[in-house]
Structure formats: structure tokens, C-alpha cells
Amino acid sequence: MKFAAATIKDIAKALGLSTSTVSRALRDSHEISTETKQLVLEYATRINYHPNPIALSLKEKRSRSIGVIVAEIANSFFSQAINGIESVANDKGYNVIISQSHESYDKEVMTLQYLSSRSIDGLLISVSTATKDLQHLKALHERGFPIVFFDRIVEDINTHKVMVDNFRGAYDATMHLIKQGYNNIATITNSENLSITRERVAGYVEALAQKHIKPRKQLIKYCFHGGMMLSEVEEAITQLLKVRPRPDAIFTGSDKLTTGTMRVLKRKGIRIPEDIAVVGFSNSDLIELLDPPLTVVRQPAFEMGQVATELLLQLIESKRPVKDFERRILATSLIVS
């Protein structure tokens, strides 16, 4: 038997009332007596009646839903950011529709087309590794569709952007390794396409330069899928182990790359930190269970989600076109083990 949601017509038929009377009673109209309102509300509760969201969206010209596109929900950083998004959206009466690009440009475009066709009110997006052509985003933005970028941003679209201080986070992590006596520090990082990659590599290079250590290109390895494919991390580490002098430490540029690097080094029988030290970006709580513990750069992911959602809702609910946009940069924390 196919499920059919209860409607105003069902209530009206059961109580012997007109649909307009039931509708007004549900809206708490002054035109309807207290007794009738109570009768309607009690019956509506009994049959689990809820207003049709599609009908409401047509009436209000707003769906009260926002879309979110991230690379991967299983990534601890993105899952914490989503929690922050939902905490604000739900409090403001908005539903959240979450999608994953899996670092695919085609999937990102297809997902965006689907979400926008379902009349979401706005979009929060952290672009995929493969996203170079921004036409799918520009086309929506030019039509006045509210978009806020978070974490992985693009400069070519003038809207709100929320990120962490990637440069400082990478600088602090690399400087920590230098102060611990490591001189041949490699970095394994995301695709060169991403804003976070460029900023984190710049922070790594600056820390080396300040200590008069010349950066070596062969010690900088880019992983296009950001560690989602362990094979690319393994290939990067295999190449690093051939460099002479061999790296004595590795700075990893994201959650997946940090855990992937540790897995690969363990497979190869390389001890951390005795043989090669590792410091990297990670928001995973599992890092705390390691023995010895790992020094990591933590991002305020939950706060980033909250801030991005607040800015998006401001765009959605503004009575006038917004012309002044914010660039929020949140501080990272170096958690020293």
C-alpha cells in the first residue's frame, strides 16, 4: 500500500468542516472559534498531519532549505563543518540538503543542477579538487542565487567566503618541526588547483626560508584526490624515500593525507617519529589515541560551518541586493603532543 500524507481535505472530511475553515483553524485565525480550533488541532495531531512543504514554498516563494556540497562527508573536517551548518540552519527553521562531490567536477556540476532545480534558497560549497571551470557557479550567481564558499574558496566570484588561516597553520606546523631539529622536511598536500593547497604550501616554504632552509621541489608532493585514494599517497611517499638526503619529517596538508601518510609509513615499516616525524592538518579525534601522540593543526570546522551558514542566511533573507561581502579568516590551533 502506497503511503499518502494526511491533508487538509482529510481533516475537513472527517470533521464535517470546509477546507477553508480547517485551513484558518490551523493558522490560528481570529475568524474561527476556540472550540473549532481545538477540535481541528487535536485531530491533526492524532493523524500526524504536517503542512505540505512544497505548497508552503510556492506560497512563500521560499523553500526554507539550503544545499551543501562538500568533497566527502566521511572526512572529519567536513563532518564537523556540517554539524556547525545544521546547528544554525535548524535553529533558523531551515532544512539542510547535503551532497558529496567525491572530488569530481562532473559530480559537482550534476549535484548543483539537481539542488537548484529543487528550489533550494541558497548554497554552501567547498569546491572539488577538479573544479577549474566555474561557469556552473557563475551562472547561478549572476542570476542572484545566494552562494557562500567555505574552506576551499574561489576568487572569481564576488560573494562571502569563510576559511581558516591556512598559511599560518602550515607555517606553525613546519616551524615546530624545525625547532625539533628536523631539517629535511617534506610536504604531502592536496591538488595545486585548490586555494588551501597554495596557502599551505606558501606557509611551509616561508617557515623554511626564515630558518635559511632552501625549499626543494622534490620534497613537495601533490595528491590530486587529497588522500581519498591511498595509492596516490603511497606513490608520493615512495618518491620521497628515494630523495637524498631522505626526508626526516613530513608535513601533511589535510585530514585524509595525515591518516594516509601514517598508514603507508606503517606498511613500509617506518616508525613515527623515530624514523620520520609527521605533523599535519587533522580534526580527527582518533589522533588522540595514538601512541606516541601526533602533533596536529586543528581547524575550527564547527565554527566555520556556523559562520558560513549565518552569512548565507543573511543573503537569503536580505530585502535588498547585497553588494558588500565578507572574507572571514578563522585561526587554526597547533596541538603539540
Kindly report the spatial arrangement of strands forming the biggest sheet.
2-1-3-4-5-11
Q: Tally the beta strands.
A: 12
**Shape category:** elongated
Which stretches are poorly predicted, pLDDT < 50 over at least 5 residues? none
Largest sheet, if any?
A: 6 strands, parallel
- Count of DSSP helices? 12
Structural class: alpha/beta
Could you name the CATH homologous superfamily of the largest domain?
Response regulator
Question: Termini, distance in Å?
Answer: 58 Å
Query: What amount of the residues lies in strands?
Result: 15-25%
Helix content: 40-55%
CATH class of the largest domain: Alpha Beta
Q: Please identify, by name, the CATH architecture of the largest domain.
A: 3-Layer(aba) Sandwich
Order of helices and strands: HHHHEHEHEHEEHEHEHEHEEHEE
In total, the number of domains comes to 3
For this structure, the quaternary state is single chain
InterPro entries: HTH_LacI (IPR000843), Lambda_DNA-bd_dom_sf (IPR010982), Peripla_BP/Lac1_sug-bd_dom (IPR001761), Peripla_BP_I (IPR028082)
Domain HTH lacI-type: 6-60
Pfam family, one: LacI
GO molecular function: DNA-binding transcription factor activity; transcription cis-regulatory region binding
